[in-house]
Amino acid sequence: MRHPARLRTHLSALAIAGLTLAGTTVALSAQAAEAAGCSVQYSVTSQWSGGFGANVSVTNLGDPVTGWTLTWSYPAGQSVTQAWNATVTQSGAQVSARNVSYNGSIATGASVAFGFNGSWTGSNPAPTAFSLNGTACTGDVGPTTTTTTSTTTSTTTGPTTTTTAPTGSLPSSFRWSSSGILISPKPDATHANVAVKDPSVVYHNGKWHVFASTYTTGYNLMYTSFSDWSQASSAPHTYLDTTAVGSGYKAAPHVFFFAPQNLWYLVYQTGDNAAYSTTTDIANPRSWSAPKKFYANGMPQIIRDNIGDGYWVDFWVICDTAKCYLFSSDDNGHLYRSETTVANYPNGFTNTVIAMQDANQNRLFEAANVYKVAGRNQYLLVHEAIGSDGRRWFRSWTAPAITGPWTSLADSESNPFARANNVTFPNGAWTRDISHGEMLRSGHDQVMEISPCNLRYLYQGMDPNSGGDYNRLPWRLGLLTQTNSTC
Length: 487
Fold this sequence. Notes:
- The chain has 487 residues and is an all-beta fold.
- It has 1 helix and 36 strands.
């Protein structure tokens, strides 16, 4: 997403059976009560000497629950030291996590998530059983009488017992099938929009929530929501310049729930800075706060020194348990990364560095996404490029940490992450550009977690015969679905 002068702006149901802990996968089977059932995903998002951070997702497979308590036992003396989105108490090895005021109800098939920091000594093995309101979480509904456990443990969490292969991984090459156009402009008396672009998407409370850039005589933001993608084209649009977000240049949104503060954040560019608005209710587009800036002193000096004739664009936030990172691009071959602590977020972003660079600015242009791969100590980076044919496409890399080092995954025109040559269009090729978008995540919080299985990517494309002023190109939104999943 470029600066106004020639602007290029740019799910999640947590229904996962099983358990993952810093390279450990635990499959559980135990006794369950009639008309009740649940599954749990427990993942250590980072680990350091004496400490760790974890996320827990609980999916209700039985009758609706009003008020919940999840219990487990730590096998090696671990202790919970700080929690969010749940009230956590501990007596010896026994841990109880109870809902807070806003997340006590879990419908059938719905999920709830919370996180915490903990301490450990010696080793940090995974818990081997969870119970929701006294019912063992087996991944099934109805009674069973057999308890079985199989565990795969990495060297960071103790000795190996029984080895079980991961359920899926990212492939070394990708194949996709594209939908037709799902979301198009909806002009009104004051918004003669010609484009919808740069989407950000999360799944929450049974609905997809999509934010995007729009263009009339300048850029601003829109919001739409729907329960099924078949409804996307008919869902109404709300223009955020009619809210406290305000008029004036806003573009390239990125939305997520920041669990430590129980707040939704909408991050976007304003031309001269990265900005954000917050709300407690993502379903109410008029509830967003007025913009605030991330960088109190404006563009960091390292960006000034390297941006050349480019533009400071496309801001992306991702956090582990200790730090939050703010990525941005410059249309000049550089990807930047700033950092602050989780406790200090959204303030204090400093230590801005060049996270990646390419002497050919078209090969590392803009629209970076960084994701945590569920069940693995792995992160995925995708970044938009301009191809030798002038069309937009995406390259990809992986790393063991948000800070890298990044290793090429599918990053060439012959083996791209997503490009016209690895995408099929069953309903007709309505675009040859695969441009600025976002993955449909397996969560909606600041961890930016995706499942490695059956990836889906919401992107912008346009009529291949279109031309003229970049800002007035007729961008539309479509959805890629992976067709070569390893799962």
